[in-house]
Structure formats: C-alpha cells, structure tokens
Amino acid sequence: MIRDTDALFLIAAGNNGTDNAVWPEYPAAYDLPNIISVASLEPNDTLSDFSNYGNTTVHIAAPGSKIFSTVRSEYQPDPVWAEPFDTLSNWTISGNWTLDPDTFVSPPYSVRGVADTKPAMLILNTTLNLSALERPVFSFSLKNGGEGIIRLEGSADGGLRWYPIYPARMKAKVTPFTFIQQQIPDSLHTENLMIRITLEKGICFIDDLSLSDGYGTLVEPSWMYYSGTSMATPMVAGITAMLMNTAPDAPVDEIKEIILSTADPVPDLQGRIITGGRVNLTAALLALEKSDAIPLGAGWNHVSVPFRLAPGSDTAAIFTGVNSSGHSVLRYNNDTTGYATLNVTDPVTPLQGYWIFSENATKVPVSFAEPVTGISRDISAGWSSVGGWAAGDQSANETFHTLGTGWSYAVGYDAAVQQYEEPIMRGGTGNQSDTRPIHPYSGYWLYSASNGTYQNGAG
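^ thats the sequence. predicted structure below, dont judge the formating
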C-alpha cells in the first residue's frame, strides 16, 4: 500500500476539470504524507481547463498542456505466428463475430465483433508455444466502432484462469484502425498458451493479429503533442529524482517539503491548489543544497561550511550533539603542527575542512551570517584541508580559481563507504576532470605546488 512504503508518489490530479475535494480522483485524493498530487498549467500560467484542482487535495502544478512527447514508435513485426482473419475457421466463436469485407487493414477481411446484451468471445483453437521467445509481443490493428470494452487475454493452465494481455476501454467516438503492440507478461511464457478475444460491450474491428519475438524493426520514431495532468506529473517526478540524486539520504518528507515550499506563486492557482504555485527546479535544488545542516555519515567525515556562521553559533560547539564515541573534532594545519584538536570555543570558518567522527548518520544544524565575499586564507605549498564556498555544487576550476595554476589536486572523502574519492586534477579529463563539482559542506584535501591565496567569490 502507498502509506506503508518509503517511496514518494507523484500522482496526476485527474482530467475532469473538477474539485478533488468534492469529486475525489484516486489515488491523487488520498490524504497521505508521501503523495504529491499534480495539476496542469497552460503555457500562459493558467490552470488547464481539463485539470482537476483542490485547495486541500492537489499540491502543486506543472506545465501539462501541449507537451511535445514521445509516443510508441512504429515497428514492423517479424511474426512467428500470424492470423490475418481471412477466415474464422481457427477460432471457436461465442456471440456475434463476423468477417467484414468493407473494413480492413489488409484485404479481404477483418473480424467484426458486436456485444450488446451479452459479451462476444473468440477462442483460438490451437495453443501457442512461447517458451523459446525472449520477449514475446502480440501485434494487431484495432478499430473502435463505439464505446465498449475489449480484451486480449491469455491462459497458461488450459483455460482455468485468464489474464489480460491487452485490456482497453474504447471511447464512444469512432476511430480509425490503430496499430497496437503489447508485450506478453512473464507469467504467460508457456509452451501451451491459450488466447482469446473478449468484447464485453460495443463494436470493434480487429485485423492482422500476430506474435513476434520483440517489437520488430523500428520504422519511425514517433512524437506528438499531448495534454493532461499525466503530462505535468513527469516534470515533478523528474525534479524529485534530481533532488533524491543530489541528496540520497534525505528523507521523503524533506524532499516533499522542499518541492512544495519552493513553488513559484501563480495568481490563477491561488486558493485552487495547496501551494498556489508552479514547481521550480532551480529553487528546489538551492533549498536542498543550502539545507543549513552539515550531513554526517556513520564513521569519519570530512566536512566544511560554505559561508560564515552566525555570531554565537560559529564555534565547534555546533558539534556537541554528535555521538562521536570520544573522538575529537580535528583541523589540519599545513605546517609542522599537523592535526589540531578543536575546543568547543574554537571558531568554525569557511574555506577550512574539518574531520569529525559520528556513530550514526545525522545532521548538524548551522545558522549562517549574511554571505560576503572577500573571505580568504593562505594556502602553503603541499596538502591543505579545505572546503568549498558556493551555495550549491560548483566546478573545481571555479572554486579554486584564485589559486591560479598553483593547485594540482583535490580529493574528496566518501563517508558512506569510508574511502577517498578519485582525485580531481587541474586540467584533467574524464573522471579526473576539473569540471567535477566541489560540494557544499564537504571537505577536500587540496594539493598546491606553490603558496597562494584561496578566496571565496566568483572569478
């Protein structure tokens, strides 16, 4: 169940143009802490006329109208079995199924089904052997003749239990033939698969049913403009994935709170959805990266602060709540003294790295003073323990630009595995490229070939 998982569910609000508090659309309308319900916006930042809403049930909005999106591309299957419906002699018929000479994809016929007072059914007289196929796929063409329900079903136990392979609810509007491909679930990979076509209601035409191993040869990639809350929701899902990738240890409720609290206010959404706003990736990433807390893993951590701490909260006393198992907080001095133990009254400053041991993964809350440029420290030739100075990830070459060509290497420490990361090399390429990021709150060993001045601020 949704409430019992650790996942964050991004759910389309629905496309009825109604209030989910009055006419609930589930699962979007469930009042659960790990759901974000998403409405759709027009390009002019107005709520899409089809979008559901609700000032207590729908959380946030994203662009969902006229979205240029991939659709299922066109493939030419390579059948291992085919039924062109030139005859119905291969099928056991129940209900109203006939060959139609006027409506087809390939002549001379398609099969036409009509279900009014009772369902109509076709059962293939022979079974199909799928055991040698790696990815069995059924392909067929379907024309909707009116509102109804159609299913292609399979049975692996001689017809005792039937499972839907392709279920569809046909709309009232009559449509042309649509080419459909449906991969068969693993549970039906059998030597003796029975198949049947069940029309519960309505009128339909089916032609050129076939079985192939895979979808076949790609004929043409397909793109179309689509509208719907299901087009808006993937944008929020993508933002969620980026946040979780940036902070893999962040709890779900924190990710949700960041997404909702950084929404851009939109006048047309005020009073209509919970946040009254549109999702904002940049603001969410900045809020996550400037979470005003130093994250610690279990074991040793090499940490830093990206800005000057607020007066009264700018000493090693900020670490007193950490279960350090008796280990001291350490600062490395690039001189003959080496490591130094910090007292609770010693300052914690930006541009400096610190080593701290924690028994458990936790966070150390911090409070910042107003960010200022011009903070600097002298870097002597050799190894120094440093930190970054940006609100978010920033490339190493930008972070250390004031050292010019003096710096050579920067080495981070991964507390999750208690190992050093691959070095960043000035002018390096690939995994050692100096375009790799320096993370806020992380400490780094920096090697300089000469003395220099390390300063915060853009270059």
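The chain has three domains: 2-66+227-289, 75-220, 291-459.
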